[in-house]
Amino acid sequence: MDFATRIETTLEALRAKGCLRVLPQTPEGLVNLSSNDYLGLLEDDALREAFYAQLSGHARLLSAASARLLTGNTPEAEALEADLAAAYGAEAALVFDSGYHANTAIVPALAGPNTLILADKLCHASMIDGIRASGCKFFRYRHNDLAHASQLLERHAKAFDDVIVMTESVFSMDGDRTDLAAFVALKRDFPNVALYLDEAHGVGVFGETGLGCAHEAGLHGAIDLLVGTCGKAWCSLGAYVICRRAVRDLLINRARPFIFTTALPPINLAWTRFVLHAFPAMAARRARLRAMGRRLAEAIRATGRACVSDSQIVPYLVGANEAAVAEAARFRAAGFHVLPIRPPTVPEGTARLRLSLTASLPDAAFDRLLGLING
């Protein structure tokens, strides 16, 4: 079989399973429940105009035109990192071009020849790719199962120099949350354990000032590697890790996606910094978003469907791939843009609609959504 034929055969197999993906268009006139714009910043004209009004000088540039280790280390990058470190009360922060870059860069750069990785079974694909790139021995503990993680540590931790335990604060497909206090307590029992927390779906949404679940719980100081993504609630681009200064220094020297990538544009970094300082004033948005998430999850559970969400991400489980596509069409007909989520993004047999709420969702639209669920 030649190359082109093999590609066509692979595509046909995906089509037959109902798993062939195409790039969607977001039609005008539909309520978008498939974005990660959790705080509704994308169409916040007042916030955007306030940003433009104070924008000046170097921060107006649309490209860094170089990697940061060459000529792309802009004042905006350094200012954002300084503000992030100060906000978290940490020694240092380092900005990456995306959450995917951060998660594929950090573990390979920091892991030693005798490092063990433990990761939640439902950790994001970028975290798994980072683990695989590191070449380390790793185990995946059952989702949010502290007892299983503890068993693996009891069995293996002493045989390794250090262990990195990886989890997320809010899981992207189920919307459930990790018991961070339990993991911090577990870390105390194993002195060679470091905690890696991905707050991609937590920053902006949780915490009094929007710094995420760990900050809300007062546990951010116990997290060795706290990764935040700016492409979701921040309505921006990029990611960051909150860490010790020595960790930052080593990442600058070893993190390949950081070293060999053109740095983020100054204007983007300036916007991210602007939003960081605006987060504390968005408590009402966060409260409304959380309230809608609770009401929607309760409505789904009232239909007899399982729903473990405790966040702004609320899964509407369907099961079969074809049925998920049909349900997406039903929601579309009712005025909602919702996409079916199918394997390999989620396990076989758990295809779903991922209802991703935003604080700007009008009351009338939310009431229609609840009616659609109940109907």
Describe the protein in words.
The protein is an alpha/beta fold. Helix content is 42%, strand content 15%. Strands 2-8-7-6-5-3-4 form a 7-stranded mixed sheet, sandwiched between helices. Strands 9-12-11 form a 3-stranded antiparallel sheet. Strands 1-10 form a two-stranded parallel sheet. The longest helix is centred in the C-terminal third of the chain and has 20 residues, at 283-302. The relative contact order is 0.16. The mean pLDDT is 95.
Q: Briefly note the structural class of the backbone.
A: alpha/beta
End-to-end separation:
50 Å
Strand content: 15-25%
Overall strand count: 12
Tell me the strand order in the biggest sheet. 2-8-7-6-5-3-4
Give the CA-based shape.
Answer: globular
* Low-confidence regions: none
Query: What is the N-to-C order of secondary-structure elements (H for helix, E for strand)?
Result: HEHHEHEHEHEHEHEEHHHHEHEEEH
Please count the helical segments: 14
Largest sheet data: 7 strands, mixed
Could you write a compact summary of the structure shown?
This protein is an alpha/beta fold and 375 residues long. The chain has helices at 3-16, 45-54, 75-88, 99-110, 125-134, 146-156, 180-188, 213-216, 245-254, 256-259, 266-278, 283-302, 321-333, 363-374; strands spanning 31-32, 92-96, 115-120, 137-141, 162-168, 193-198, 225-229, 239-243, 313-319, 336-337, 340-341, 351-356. The strands form three sheets. The chain has a seven-stranded mixed sheet with strand order 2-8-7-6-5-3-4, with helices on both faces. Strands 9-12-11 form a three-stranded antiparallel sheet. A two-stranded parallel ribbon has the order 1-10.
